[in-house]
Amino acid sequence: MKTSNQHSNNATTFTTGRMALLLVVVAVMLHHFGGGYQTPDLEENLIGKTALVTGASRGLGKGYALGLAEAGAALYLTATTEASAEKTCVEARKLGATYCKAFACNNENDDEIEALYRNIEADLLSNDETEGSNNNKRLDIVVNNAFNTGDTHKYAGQKFWDKGEYAGHLFDIMTKVGLRSHYVSSVYAMKLMTKLAPVGASDRGLIVFTSSGGGMNYFVDVAYGVGKAAVDRMAADMAIETESENITVVSTWPGWVDTEQVRWEIAQGKNGTFGKIKKGAGATSEGAFEFLASTVGTPLQETILLNGRTLAALAKDKFKAQFSGKVLPTSSLSTHYDVVDEKNWRTPAFFTTRFMALLIFPNLQQVENLPWVLKYIPDIRLTPQWLQKVLNGSPRFM
User: N or C: which end of the chain has fewer CB within 10 A?
Assistant: First the structure.
């Protein structure tokens, strides 16, 4: 019996190995034949272009602002206070922004969003030709990034019916700023873009939404996933209506990003959002917190500047309209444009050949080894995202 069991174990190991090899081969083939996008054709810089970034005082919004600044764009930045947005402006000017003006804007308030666009239009159309003014006469890029998580950390790990009186409030918070506010902002963005951009121009504007993989896969909270899924659908539907105006609309999926909020949550340990989630209540498996905490500050985590530089590359691309209506993961888009972060590194997506290599062989994560990893280990998804959508994403059909 022992010999029989050994043969059985060997056979199982052999079969598993063959299946893993087959999966890699299929992934390589799909990667090779499944693209179809035009080769990037990038403008040299964004000098002469104007961008609005909401929620730009920290995190991804700040990263987007700095990435656009490096490319020479003129910027309008919003935050809850003008002072906090101005701090990002100071950094943006040092990095190359040709102009930067800060605004306070409460994205829960439609009137404040409308007033923001009125102020931007007035600034764009002013006849001020003095040094330090914005001489661009149109709005080219709008990044709808502002988002409010409320007190999610207090109720994380609880099922949606166990959140008490906060359940409905949480839903309202996560869908008002970050979904409804994106919609309202886009209404005024379209009006201003179509008013100021030349009729018939091939590129009359770019509207970007910050979303996340939580729009496809369950993570943290039901309300969170619903909001992100709606953002992705909004980009797809808006793109149909903006096509006639030659305005591109996309939804971006940053990965696991090293932000102030993430650092704070991880520092709370089991009292933070990620520390409280568990299988069936914020996560689909156990050990989510331990895994996420182990990757903070490592090459497995994206930087805000990687996201900003990737966005800037998209804005410079003459063929960006091919992505209109689509969800654009930073990991995929940064690869498409060959973008790297401030450490000359490009973070791979989860479950790619490069990600698995870094996970299995931790020594590869050392800074001195990263150039070798980037050069010699291919970054190929073991399961393409369209297949993940079919297998795991919503809606799920019978």
Answer: C
Classify the phi-psi angles of 96: left when phi > 0, otherwise alpha if psi is within -120 to 50, otherwise beta: left
CA dist 189 → 141, 197, 230 (Å): 9, 12, 19
Tokens 């306070």 map to which residue? 104
Residue 252: DSSP 8-state: E
> Domain residues of the chain, as ranges?
50-263+302-347, 351-398
Query: What is the enclosing helix (H) or strand (E) of 250?
Result: strand 247-253
Q: Please give the chain's pLDDT, 398 residues, in tens.
A: 445 555 445 545 455 556 555 555 555 455 444 458 999 999 999 999 999 999 999 999 999 999 999 999 999 999 999 999 999 999 999 999 999 999 999 999 999 999 999 999 999 999 676 667 788 999 999 999 999 988 888 888 999 999 888 889 999 999 999 999 999 999 999 999 999 999 989 999 999 999 999 999 899 899 999 999 999 999 999 999 999 999 999 999 999 999 999 999 999 999 989 899 888 888 888 888 899 999 999 999 999 999 999 999 999 999 999 999 999 999 999 999 999 999 999 999 888 999 999 999 999 999 999 999 999 999 998 877 677 776 676 777 77
CATH of 50-263+302-347, one of 3.40.30.10, 3.40.50.720, 3.40.50.20, 3.30.43.10: 3.40.50.720
Distances (CA, A) of 36 to 30, 193, 334: 11, 29, 16
Give the ranges where 71-151 is alpha helix by DSSP (H): 82-95, 110-125
CA atoms of 232 and 237, how far apart (whole Å) = 9
Residue 377 phi, psi (nearest 5) = -105, 115
Please give the model's pTM, rounded to 2 decimal places.
0.89
**248 — phi, psi (to 5°)?**
-90, 135
Report the C-alpha gap between 247 and 243 in whole angstroms: 6
Question: How many CB atoms sit inside 10 A of residue 232's CB?
Answer: 21
